[in-house]
């Protein structure tokens, strides 16, 4: 008996395949799947590998047909192969058979079927099946196939143009794709024609880089534009490598890739990025201008913001703001630059009948853009301006572009903005939108500031009307006062001061502070001031006056109203006096030598708080000055009361002798120095009581 294979094997002596133990040992040790079938196609023997592959025990398969014990698809393959071997008496190979394992995995097997003959009888005795697990090789082949497909698809998608040159860089083979793009003939291309279609601006650098790669035998990587058949240009990336054999370059192989779409996309992204950046910058500038304008309370402040915006956001060389005087039918320049206009008008007032960018903007209610002298000339001539005056203006001025913007509030013209440039300027549509938005914000700010100034003047007049017109003139005593309104709004503050002569010849002096703003605070100030005068004239001692004011306060004022004051009665000439405090900062006594002493008397509580009022002796010796003041002088958002009192004493010591001796100069000095470096957010009131030094005649 022998098994036919592709390579005949010599028969080994003393080895009998019929030996059951030997056969069983071979099958158990083999790494391949074995199976034997008889002439009827029945399974005779299998090894453990085959049993594991088909997932059927060996004892169940013995003497059975494959169709009886194996899966349908596998049994069909084996049956057909066995039958083919029986009919042809020749080997049969099934190269790819998929088998699912017990764990659910799919494995690939290669099955070979060979006839086994009885040499003595010369008959077919059995069919041998040998199975080899080729799963790994199948996966490797599949991976290689997919990789090849991907590479081929990638190359085709990139539309690369492949070319070959000699070791010296001479073109020796045709490149039909290249010539199809450039429109060159074969002879032209072979005669170094590829360099002729490179953009002239890039030709020299490209040639030098190519020669350098040839000399160094290094990879050539470059970018250049190529003139196409249609006379346009497309962007190409080129890469070429030397093919080296036995240390020598035998040829160069290169590939050109058309990257025009990518370049165009990059340029488009760049333009969009620039546009978005410009839009974001304009938005940020408009937001910044809006924030600044929101804080501007006066027309002067609004004008300053506009000038700053014109110089920073617009890079304008000059900025101007003019408000409309409807009664005079003219524009009044606010920033007073005295801008020379093409109409020949100079000065701060520009009649609406004279044509310039501001009057045209106001009359038309539309922006006026003159991007060049020619544009300005055309617009002004159309408006009826004198050509000779216009030509003289352009010839002698340095401005070359102008913008006029109307300031409109609810359709009503308030004035105009003017920006000018010493260079021609292109005003884009986006710039125009920005300028109109800026003009709208400026118009609102101007309207608000105009209203604020008018109402603030009214409020200041009301507040000052509640204060004394003048201080009394008293022999042996000099009085001085300073009041500086710190209200950022149009509301009236509650600071007040007063000084008057009592029936016994002494002088009453008071500084008070009704917390809050508005009419309510002013009304409270007026009531307390009048009540204090009445009480002082009836019963002048400070403690008695404060006690009476407590009763008045409880009867007329609300509980949440806080009112403080410092009240003193002083004797002229001698300066003898008494003082009482109702929750108010202590007076400061300034000596002729410029030293400062804070009164250490009991501070007391604000009016209306249940307490026993006390008074104490307070003397202003001759040559000294006592200063009563409100908390706005020493306290603000950045400086506490204790620090403010320390600063006040320090500032006094810095006053020159001539200032110390004059109560008027002293108050100016103290107010200016104490407010320097701080934003005033409260009223400041100060009252000085100065006792002149005694003279020999006295």
TrEMBL record:
PAS domain boundaries: 147-217
Gene Ontology molecular functions: phosphatase activity
Keywords of the record: Hydrolase
Keyword Hydrolase: yes
Domain PAC, chain residue ranges per copy: 93-146
Record protein name field: PAS domain S-box-containing protein
Species the sequence originates in: Nonomuraea jabiensis
Phylogenetic lineage: Bacteria, Bacillati, Actinomycetota, Actinomycetes, Streptosporangiales
